[in-house]
Hints:
The protein is 49% helix and 18% strand. It has 5 helices and 7 strands; from the N terminus they run H-H-H-H-H-E-E-E-E-E-E-E. The strands form 2 sheets. Strands 4-3-6-7 form a 4-stranded antiparallel β-sheet, with no helix packed on it. The chain starts with a helix and ends with a strand. Bound molecules: zinc ion.
Amino acid sequence: xxxxxQFAEDLALYALGTLEGEAAVALDLHLEECAACRQxxxxxxxxxxxxxxTTSGPAPPQRARQRLLKAIxxxxxxxxxxxxxxxxxxxxxxxxxxxxxxxxxxxxxxNARQRDRIEALRADATQNQATFEEAKxxxxxxxxxxxxxxxxxxxxxxxxxxxxAIYMPSNGALVFMASNxxxxxxxxxxxxxxxxxxxxxxxxxxxxxxxxxxxATVMMPxxxxxxxxxxxAVTIEPEGGSATPxxxxxxxGS
Length: 254
Ligand SMILES: [Zn+2]
């Protein structure tokens, strides 16, 4: 490509939109007649575009910033006279440098935004890893057979009475175990009742008195086979038992 050397430097300034005065007028006139210089100008503008595209880093390139500020500060005022005096393609550098400068700053902003996003993702990942580690430790504790399990109750409260009944309706076999029972008054007994599934008349299922620790058992009391039980209950009755339970119930199956 042949380039007219006397215009080489002017073309670069022209491409940046900073050539002014007589030099600009002379170059305008020359560009109208010279295809080679118009090609060279186009090539310079292409270089600027590449420069803008490869821009990255913590700050917009100083020159791009200066060009933009200069363009914003000075161009609008002179655009009208420039437009009247110059042909359309001689205006291209003004717009090109403005667009490129804006583009470079947009790229820089986008880079900064991406960096922020990556930082946020990295923080999220760290947090997720910490949560996962906590969950793993918790699961290990809960499933480890060597872990110690202790049930705690309010320090001043007395242990509550509790019992378990194991019953086989087909043959009437019944085992009952109770703990933390309150001591009985003289001439009183605890009585176990089977609450039938059909019919609402409770059936006596044995009498018992707790030992000094509050524990008691009823083993295989005489029961009719084939009675479906809804639940079992315990009441306090006069010595010798009752035909029907005396309220209130001390214990009842859930
Ligand atoms: Zn030329």
